[in-house]
Amino acid sequence: MFRRIIDASRPALTIFIDGAPFEAREGDSVAAALLGSGRLTTRTSALSGAPRAPYCLMGTCFECLVTIDGVGNRQACMTAVQSGMRIETRHGKRNFGA
Amino acid sequence: MSDLARREFDFAVVGGGLVGMAIAWGLAGRGRKVVVLDGGDLDFRASRGNFALVWVQSKGAGMPEYGCWTMQSSRLWPQFASLLGEQTGLDVCFSKPGGLHLLLSDREMENRTNALQRLHNQPGMEALEYEMLDHGRLEKMLPQIGPEVAGASFCPQDGHVNALRLLRALHVAFARLGGDYRSNHLVSRIEPRGGEFSLSTANGVFTAGKLVLAAGLGNSRLAAMVDLNALVRPQRGQIIVTEKVAPFMHYVVHTIRQTDEGGVMISDSVEEADYDASIGSEVLSVMAARAARMFPLLARLNVVRCWAALRVMPQDGFPIYDQSRSFAGAFIATCHSGVTLAANHALVLPALIDAGALPNDLQAFSTQRFDVPAHH
After folding, report:
1. Which of A47, A61, A73, A96 to mutate to test the interface with B (most CBs of B within 10 A)?
2. Interface probe, candidates B302, B303, B304, B305, chain A, greatest A C-beta count within 10 A
3. What is the rounded CA–CA span in Å between residue A89 and residue A64?
4. Mean pLDDT over all residues of chain B?
5. A12-90: what fold?
6. Per the CB < 8 Å rule, is A46 touching B261?
7. B244: contact with A, CB 8 A cutoff
8. What's the whole-model pTM score?
9. Which structural domain range is residue B290 located in?
10. What percentage of chain B has pLDDT greater than the value 90?
11. Residue B303's closest chain A neighbor by CA?
């Protein structure tokens, strides 16, 4: 659905989305990479279970929460991708400590 | 009809927080015509900053009547919650899993044991089921406790609720009964005249046959207008809220609870801060550190919000219920624990106020306890 409009000039790097390798570009936000990977939803709501996706892309709406390198509920739009980063999309409440 | 028109009501309730709305709902349910005159959104509103416990253990030291009054409300809470649910379709998420007061040293353990013993040895104190648990027994209930936790006091009567939904449900239920709620109607003057009361607000004058002052911190100012002496002061409480996670805490801890929606609330501070509702990282970091000593795994949770609220504290910590001796029909109701006591305020107090007299067993809560005895 989303098409990259700029630049092959930025170096490619590999991240892992739900375990699968994906080629992103240096400078991409995690949210941009998730959308670029073809995903239209990146989590389900902790309360209603409704599907959610990156929306404001500027840190305000908290719709883009994902687990990044084991830390839950991080804002994908406010985090730059790094080589080898592991991103987990989320379904329902984060399971924690039980 | 314009807002400036004179209105006639059986009751004017001043204050639209948990205390005022519970009483107003109870009065409206008795068929009375009730107006609630509330302040604005930016006023100090304890009902939006409480910790939402329905808490029984430890209530009533120095006034056993308060302990009994609290237990009565705890017993009425299931009925109260289901009535609100029936009338509004809103689930206030009341549950009574039992509550734990965690203790972080042998010294805290000993102090707690003695304090609860003194509380329950008071003449007139109703028996309350509670027990002291050592680390081993506590760990069987709450496997996530840290090694520094010495033990806890446990009371099966303690519970909690979704307090924001409680406030909303009371407003919805009151409106469905035909109650008239007015926000931005701060009462500036009360004039008793001819057996009724005239209340002035920036948005008009209201008249009512009877009056209930339930304005929290505003009650000190308002009580004087009907010749009552009610001393309340603000106490700042700060709250930390984490991200929502799957349920893992199956009991309520007095300073830490997991809400029905999954967030963990931490509140472990009491400050005499006058009318300053700001938050401060110093207190918040102490709260967070204590919480992480109780439950080390909390350190891995993301904090999403912190806030502070001014809670209402009567001078001696106990609720105030009274009727003006100079102006019959002018009642006051104010307390610290507006959530715990909400069932009493909704199901017990309205009938008494409606009948026009508070019974002798509520005499302990009268403002007369603040009167200085004359010197002989």
Report:
1. A96
2. B302
3. 9
4. 92
5. Ubiquitin-like (UB roll) (3.10.20)
6. yes
7. yes
8. 0.88
9. 98-157+233-314
10. 74
11. A73
